[in-house]
Specification:
By secondary structure, this protein is of the alpha+beta class. The chain has 1 helix and 3 strands. It has a 3-stranded antiparallel sheet with strand order 2-1-3. The longest helix has 11 residues. The protein starts with a strand and ends with a strand.
Length: 40
């Protein structure tokens, strides 16, 4: 099973909700990328 998450590689933070990732982008001015997380 896989799901989408957003990762800031500069801070090494991962967000499960897009709105949290967007908030991080606005506050920190870091780019956040969409990544797939595979769970067993």
């Amino acid at each position: 099973m896989s799901s989408t998450a957003w990762k800031c590689f500069r801070c090494d933070l991962t967000f499960k909700e897009e709105n949290h990732a967007k908030l991080h982008e606005e506050i920190s001015k870091h780019s956040v990328r969409s990544v797939k997380i595979i769970t067993a």
